[in-house]
DNA sequence: GTCTATACTAAGATAGAC
DNA sequence: GTCTATCTTAGTATAGAC
């Protein structure tokens, strides 16, 4: 099962997340295509297992961080890890963060894993002063925009993501200033 | 030809840009599927025509704007129009701004149209003070992030895009402050 | 759990008549 | 330019033996 998922990720890296075929996957793991149905009830079942697997890896990565006590630095540390995780595997990033597969919706159990990571991020941002939902929304959309531009236009490089810390400061400072003005 | 493209956009709105089939498209325009090959040499030819068509519509929209003389307000006006254009048709937005179709690359002529719109945006941003490439990159990535979050999580609403003007001010102010500190 | 064999569906593309 | 007919490829899924 673990090896099947590993091979599926390999195929996704080469052909895109939508480019996985059960024939090709079976061939990579040394099986025949119908045998995969002993592990997944359908192709979407495979995607759901991958969705859960990817989110588990993300959570592992995030749990393993030793976050600085300063809340602003904690945000930077956390986001740097998140962005690194995202750009290191564009196909995985697409499955976890976008909706690239028409007809596929993660199961509730798998989706719950994704919610955990998001709530971790939200908690840190609130601790750093982003108290309103709108501020959190904007910050997360900004990070997603950086990731997307980076993967699309400069894969493997850092033309966009190198500005992450500066933009984080900008958002946190702006929020603080607006609070002080009230 | 114009009606074929219109029907193609309609299908894209319903099934997604990757969900267009030549059979379905032919049925919508009252033809048989092979007849479409009188208009396009392949399915990618259809996508290329749609890509060019979408960019032409975007340029029309942008040319029709009466931009304020103040450079900051000009940016806001321009970006509001761009964002409105993007969110009003997610499938078109995906074709023009992302790379949702494995194997499809726009032709050089079609791509040139897309470059025109981008250079308009860049010129306005520079006039408003975003003099470095990194600042322009970050601003455009931020706008794309807003659009993407809006379409994905709140289609038809304004939860993300309503912050556009505020974020524009934040970016322009931040750039100005950093320049003054030098 | 794994296999062979096959059903089923759908798509893009081509040949050649009109 | 449009048609009928067909080719070719490719995919998911199922039946049933071992």
Attribute tags:
homodimer; mainly alpha; Tetracycline Repressor, domain 2; elongated; DNA-binding
Describe this entry's structure for a reader.
The structure is a homodimer of 182-residue chains. Chain A is an all-alpha fold and 182 residues long. Chain A has a single domain, classed as Tetracycline Repressor, domain 2, CATH 1.10.357.10. Chain A is 69% helix and 0% strand. Chain A is built from 8 helices and no strands. In chain A, helix 4 packs antiparallel against helix 6, helix 4 runs parallel beside helix 7 and helix 7 runs antiparallel to helix 8. The longest helix of chain A has 21 residues. Chain A is elongated and about 65 Å long. The N and C termini of chain A lie far apart (56 Å).
